[in-house]
Amino acid sequence: MHHSTNTVELLEDDSTEVPFCKHGPALLFRRIGTAGKNSGRPFYACSGCRNRKDCALFVWKDDLLSRPLPDSKTWDHIRKEVVPTSSHDQLYQKLRSVSKRPPSERFFCCRKLLARTELGAHRGHAVTTPVEDDDLRRPTRLINADVTNTTKAQYFFSDACVAFLCSLLEQQHFESVICVGAPTIHEHLRESCPQLPSILLDIEQTYEQFYGPSEFGWFNMFNGFFFRGSSAEKTVQRHLSLGTRCALLIDPPFGGLVDAIARTLAKMVSDAAAVGSALSIFWFFPYFNEKRIVEAMPSLRMLDFAVDYRNHVTFNESGRTKGSPVRIFTDIPPGQVKLPSDRYRYCYDCDRVIRVG
């Protein structure tokens, strides 16, 4: 079985030995529609980077049949370069220590919370200070978003969008939330909706300093990989078992592989069902990808709500003539979703709320 993605197919893979890069296990692909001796030949490549300038991992699958996987491409080797020597809990303890100091004695640099005594190693760097209590509660205000990295593509929802989405979650009576690559939603739920427990899964390791292991998992949405291993995966399982209805909000990089994301989501839906929980999906992606998304996950339907980002030049209310092209793809029936009445109205013919103008 395989899934099609433009001229590259994402293949199913049952191999026990898979090459790794700093983004976790590689995915198996083959190129189609091209001439040459290697057309259709399966190969492993990075799950998150589509440009080999960003991640050079590339291994022909049949090469692994004739020679063992090099140590340099095993997780045991790569982990030493990627995963901090400090545990997640140890990094989170730093927040507790720093938060006891006044804002003027708190510093943030190189994606790290620092005390004054640690500034010597950051001489000449751009240091953020003071660090207010609200900054510690909402770290997306501190983190210098990496918008050029195709694996992270850190664009944050606008405040109005966050408020609407959190209101929608409450209206639908969800009992828990999983935010995959959606840190602003997680922040808002912690502050304004404590009755709705949330866990953030994100490839940005910096969040380990701001959230404990029960609230954050260092995670790659394209291959479903937890960088801290099975303990983080078990935390998500416990979170799913908090109730019978859980919402999963996922905000991938816009150039991300749809089929890889769909595979990860399908596994999470299955994991939720195994503990007696129904997992509802809210996938944020440009509307021109509707066909690809619905092919990958037929249960999803597109809502007409335009999703704005506070740090995107064009994907906001004022950046384009018709506003942001990003929409929500969900398995919640569109007719059950109430959109803001000043910009949307209910259409009885199609049983959904549509945008006015």
From TrEMBL:
<keyword id="KW-0862">Zinc</keyword>
<dbReference type="InterPro" id="IPR041370">
    <property type="entry name" value="Mlase_EEF1AKMT1/ZCCHC4"/>
</dbReference>
<keyword id="KW-0949">S-adenosyl-L-methionine</keyword>
<keyword id="KW-0963">Cytoplasm</keyword>
<dbReference type="Pfam" id="PF06839">
    <property type="entry name" value="Zn_ribbon_GRF"/>
</dbReference>
<keyword id="KW-0863">Zinc-finger</keyword>
<protein>
    <submittedName>
        <fullName>SMC protein, putative</fullName>
    </submittedName>
</protein>
<keyword id="KW-0479">Metal-binding</keyword>
<keyword id="KW-0808">Transferase</keyword>
<dbReference type="InterPro" id="IPR039846">
    <property type="entry name" value="ZCCHC4"/>
</dbReference>
<dbReference type="GO" id="GO:0031167">
    <property type="term" value="P:rRNA methylation"/>
</dbReference>
<dbReference type="GO" id="GO:0008270">
    <property type="term" value="F:zinc ion binding"/>
</dbReference>
<dbReference type="Pfam" id="PF10237">
    <property type="entry name" value="N6-adenineMlase"/>
</dbReference>
<dbReference type="InterPro" id="IPR010666">
    <property type="entry name" value="Znf_GRF"/>
</dbReference>
<keyword id="KW-0489">Methyltransferase</keyword>
<dbReference type="GO" id="GO:0008988">
    <property type="term" value="F:rRNA (adenine-N6-)-methyltransferase activity"/>
</dbReference>
<dbReference type="GO" id="GO:0005730">
    <property type="term" value="C:nucleolus"/>
</dbReference>
<dbReference type="GO" id="GO:0005737">
    <property type="term" value="C:cytoplasm"/>
</dbReference>
<feature type="domain" description="GRF-type">
    <location>
        <begin position="21"/>
        <end position="64"/>
    </location>
</feature>
